[in-house]
Each structure stands twice: as C-alpha cells, then as structure tokens.
Amino acid sequence: MSVGRIIETPDCVAEGAKWLAETCPRMAYAMDQTGPLPLRRKPDGFAQLLSAIVSQQVSVASANAIWKRLQDAKLTGPRKIMWATDEDLRAVGLSRQKIRYARALAEARIDYKALRDAPDEDVVAILTEISGIGVWTAEIYAMFSLGRADVIAPGDLALQEAARILYDLPKRPTDKELRKMAEAWSPWRSVAARVMWAYYRVAKEREGIR
C-alpha cells in the first residue's frame, strides 16, 4: 500500500479546498465563512505525540498552558520524561493518567522515521498499541505531523459539532457516522477536517483544535 498524497505546503491545502468546494456546496459555504485554511503542518516525533496526549479531553486553552509549562521545564523528550518524578510531571499540570501515558510513550521507542513511509492504517495500528494513544491521537498525528491528505479524526468533538451545524443535522454525528460521511470527502479528508475546524471557530467563536 502506498502512503498517498502528502500535504506539504499551503498550495496543497488550497488544491484540496478547491476540490471540496466543487464537490460539496456545504463545504463551499463553510469556506466562504472561514477564508483561507491554515496549513497545520507540525514536526513529527515524540514531542508531537506527547503534545497530543496533553490535548486529550481538555480545552485548547488548557492544553496550550500545560504544554508551555512542559516546554519551560524542558520535559518534552523521552529521556526527560523517564527521568522526571511524578511530582515534577504533576507540577506542570499532567494528571496521574497522563503521566502514565507519557511514560508509556517514552518507553515505546517508536521508529518515527519509519512511520513516515507507513500506510495510514499501519500508522494508526502501530501508535494505538501504546497505552494512552487512541485512534483520535493517532489520526491527528497522521494528519498534522505526517501530512496525510486523506485522514480524518471523526472521534473529535469539534469536528462532530461542526458537521452537525454545517450539515444541519438533528444531533452530533457519532464517530462511526462521521467516518461514513467523510467517505464523500476522499481523497482530501484531512482538508475537509481543516474546513470544519475553521468553521467551528467561526460558528462557536472558540478554537476546536490546537
């Protein structure tokens, strides 16, 4: 299996956005409201997965604050996480559960370089073997750190809420329902996610993703 299209530049996002606008009138409407979409490319590696763990089940503002404290304390590398005491990690805002997840990630010794060439399904399978990394975290990593063009994270509550508003649904779609809806946005599901996060920001006046 091939890796498929990689989003590397704003032009890649614009190409996907144009395709979505031509394919789906609701996507076109959303983009009229949001303007140009952000690239949202991030580095790959340990720190980005740790950052995704930090973001789990907290607001964007809380996640940003905790991540800044981790950076200030120089606790964003696997060795530093292993050497830190639980008290050190609690002091920067990590819960007991997230301390356990951070240590599990540090111990996993993932071959991050190999992930760059792995198919999307393999990336998700490899990462979700680690305690604390679920499908949402793995898919966010594939989208932003690996630049995969055709991945979406349908378990994301902001995406579910944006889909509800944009498509005038009676309730938020479930993970399974949104994954099914997203088939219509292939091969640019990652750009569709960017559209809906941007639309969520406009509709709800708050950030839905870091």
Automatic annotation (TrEMBL):
Start and end residues of each HhH-GPD domain: 54-201
SUPFAM superfamilies, per the entry: DNA-glycosylase
Keyword Nucleus: no
Main enzyme class: hydrolase
Cellular component GO terms held in the UniProt record: cytoplasm; protein-DNA complex
InterPro entries: Alkylbase_DNA_Glycosylase/TA, DNA_glycosylase, HhH-GPD_domain
One example of a Gene Ontology biological process annotation: base-excision repair, AP site formation
Keywords on record: DNA damage, DNA repair
Enzyme Commission number(s): 3.2.2.21
Domain of life: Bacteria
Gene Ontology molecular function, alphabetical: alkylated DNA binding; DNA-3-methyladenine glycosylase activity; DNA-7-methylguanine glycosylase activity
SMART domains linked: ENDO3c
Reaction equations catalysed: Hydrolysis of alkylated DNA, releasing 3-methyladenine, 3-methylguanine, 7-methylguanine and 7-methyladenine
Name used for this protein in its record: DNA-3-methyladenine glycosylase II
